[in-house]
């Protein structure tokens, strides 16, 4: 019941109570003026007294009824809110179940191929009649690559759920831009050489120093550069820019790949996102690398976005605040 309706009803009840009380008073005064004997007067007085008691009880019951209705409305509202929370939890549980199913499907699909390749190559190497020592070296390199892909995939899964499992602390410390360049180049220059690609670094200023968490930033940088090397054409150039300006670290990776469609850009940072582009060197893609970039960037209170056009390459930008 609305407040206005309840107030109107309360006013009506109080008015009725006042009228009934006044009528009782008039009746009592009239009886008194009649100067009746106690034997005659006493029953009338008892009736008046009981009627007064009845009126008071009626008012109390009305008040209790209002309180009960108010409590019922409050309880109903709380139940509605609780049901909404339960429905939200159910939705989250369904989402988690779907995500778990996707993990298993991804593990079965994406780990099966490299494992089969490793087993096949190992079988050939173990039989000297099937290959030469030179071929052994090539197959050994292939096994190393396949094993590395599998380890990367497992590491991505472990790291993503570590980053999402609860509050994490990323202490910041001072680092030079050239130091970060050397770490990125040391990790990924081999991948670039295998695809005859060039890694070009641009640093501004050359003696720039930033205060960020090194583990998180290097992981972001490695994921983005690795992604560019994976999808860009063999023999092309990947440009990596590190800039320190206005109390922020500006990092970008530009490739000469096929570009990313507007449709794919909308789901870039989702876990297990499957995009239309495919690795150009037979590498595996877990669909977790960019999700990790997004999660780490958020944890560092930064921002990440992509600029791309089909046929004209892609640039990923990351801006992180420097403590």
UniProtKB/TrEMBL annotation:
Protein name: histidine kinase
Chemical reaction(s) catalysed: ATP + protein L-histidine = ADP + protein N-phospho-L-histidine
Keywords: Coiled coil, Kinase, Phosphoprotein, Transferase
The enzyme's E.C. designation: 2.7.13.3
Domain of life assignment: Bacteria
Gene Ontology terms for molecular function: phosphorelay sensor kinase activity
Coiled coil: 72-106
Keyword GTP-binding set for record: no
InterPro entries, per the entry: HATPase_C_sf, HATPase_dom, His_kinase_dom, HisK_dim/P_dom, HisK_dim/P_sf, Sig_transdc_His_kin-like_C
The keyword Transferase belongs to this UniProt entry's keyword annotation: yes
Histidine kinase domain location: 106-323
